[in-house]
């Protein structure tokens, strides 16, 4: 790693411990990917030779933690930048790949893993009832099982709650905890992910709407001489992406479905561009006629939010020049790209790559329109 960046690696079941020095010495490269959708993942590559103790160390460790009776092997990465320790990733190991050396050249061991949502996807709890419980209460109860992994649930109530009366219907879980929570998130237009907390070995299990408000991260500057802090930044605009969903609410007396257009009106996702994405298509959601009015509206909002981000950007930066770690699922400013593309963006994904003497990040940004809504972008 660079002299200004220190990486700590902890491995172990449930409560991981710092690894021995020989593991750090053999570590060549670390890659961590975090995105607003789907599970985050990591990859560690170690340089080894045929006589290295690491060849058997990982196989024994993984073999002893691969059954239902034992917890998966937990891997925690902590980066110290500017004297401040920040958790970069907290997850579990899922795969070990060995590449043998050739012609007196060392080989490599690559271990791959996912975030802690993986431990919620191991056991099928189908049939578990949740009588008279709103969606957020079910999510909190499910996440409480995993407190030993430092998981702290943060469920946000739905904008249009729909709590079934027990004498009419009792919701029951289908599939694993992760599959059921993702199903609930899809139904109410929420997202679910687990990300490291501010304190090492703690994690926030967030269930709620995508939040596109808050204090933006330091701006990404392109073509600004000494203030430039990104290596590349490319933009694209898709004017055909806008879709207006039409849901159908059935009148119980006449059985006549009433079509209702659902625009994206999430107060936690205000417009970031002056020229919003034009509505290029209508989507008839006929399946919503079988739902309750609250369920139909939630389904419409979930569909509306998928089609708003017509502006996207991708690029890369050197963390030491940027001065901090760019975080996904937060806002960031862009300066120096021109009137159409300057402004605030939502960071949809970040891939961090660490090696000896380098710490770089590639990223993807999104926004719902052209031209910044703010006259100036905070530095």
Give the CATH class of the largest domain.
Mainly Beta
- Radius of gyration equals 23 Å
| Count, helices | 6
Q: What is the percentage of strand-forming residues?
A: 35-45%
CATH 2nd-level architecture of the largest domain: Beta Barrel
Mean pLDDT: 87
Order of helices and strands: EEHEEHEEEHEHEEEEEEEEHEHEEEE
Tell me the domain tally: 4
Largest sheet: 13 strands, mixed
Give the quaternary arrangement of the chains. Answer: single chain
CATH topology of the largest domain: Thrombin, subunit H
Protein name: Phage protein D
Description:
The structure is a single chain. The strands form four sheets. Strands 1, 2, 3, 4, 5, 6, 7, 11, 12, 17, 18, 19 and 20 form a 13-stranded mixed β-sheet that branches. The chain has four domains: 110 residues, Beta Barrel (Thrombin, subunit H), CATH 2.40.10; 81 residues, 3-Layer(bab) Sandwich (Phage tail protein beta-alpha-beta fold), CATH 3.55.50; 85 residues, Roll (Phage tail proteins - horseshoe like beta roll fold); 65 residues, no CATH class. The protein is mainly beta and 379 residues long. Strand 5 and strand 6 form a beta hairpin. Helix content is 15%, strand content 41%.
């Amino acid at each position: 790693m660079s002299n200004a960046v220190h990486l700590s690696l902890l491995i172990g079941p449930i409560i991981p411990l710092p690894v021995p020095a020989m593991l750090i010495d053999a570590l060549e490269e670390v890659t961590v990917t975090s995105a607003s959708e789907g599970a985050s993942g990591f990859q560690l590559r170690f340089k080894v030779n045929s006589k290295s103790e690491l060849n058997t160390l990982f196989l024994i460790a993984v073999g002893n933690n691969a059954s239902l009776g034992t917890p998966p092997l937990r891997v925690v990465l902590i980066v110290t930048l500017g004297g401040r320790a920040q958790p970069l990733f907290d997850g579990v190991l899922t795969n070990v790949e060995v590449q043998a050396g050739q012609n007196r050249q060392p080989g490599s061991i690559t271990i791959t893993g996912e975030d802690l949502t993986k431990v919620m996807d191991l056991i099928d709890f189908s049939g578990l009832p949740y009588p008279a419980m709103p969606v957020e209460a079910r999510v909190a109860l499910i996440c409480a099982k995993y407190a030993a992994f430092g998981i702290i649930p943060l469920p946000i109530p739905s904008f249009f709650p729909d709590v079934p009366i027990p004498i009419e219907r009792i919701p029951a879980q289908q599939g694993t905890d992760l599959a059921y929570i993702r199903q609930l998130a899809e139904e109410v237009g929420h997202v679910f992910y687990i990300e490291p907390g501010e304190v090492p070995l703690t994690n926030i299990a967030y269930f709620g709407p995508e939040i596109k408000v808050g204090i933006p991260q330091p701006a990404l500057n392109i073509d600004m001489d000494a203030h430039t802090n990104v290596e590349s930044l490319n933009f694209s605009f898709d004017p055909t992406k806008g879709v207006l969903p039409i849901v159908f609410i059935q009148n119980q007396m006449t059985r006549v479905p009433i079509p209702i257009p659902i625009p994206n009106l999430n107060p936690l996702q205000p417009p970031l561009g002056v020229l919003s994405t034009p509505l290029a298509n209508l989507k008839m959601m006929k399946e919503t006629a079988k739902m309750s009015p609250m369920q139909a509206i939630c389904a419409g909002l979930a569909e509306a939010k998928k089609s708003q981000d017509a502006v996207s950007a991708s690029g890369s930066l050197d963390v030491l020049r940027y001065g901090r770690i760019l975080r996904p699922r937060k806002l960031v400013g862009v300066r120096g790209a021109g009137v159409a593309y300057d402004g605030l963006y939502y960071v949809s994904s970040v891939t961090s790559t660490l090696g000896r003497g380098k710490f770089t990040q590639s990223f993807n940004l999104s926004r719902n329109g052209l031209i910044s809504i703010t006259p100036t972008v905070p530095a």
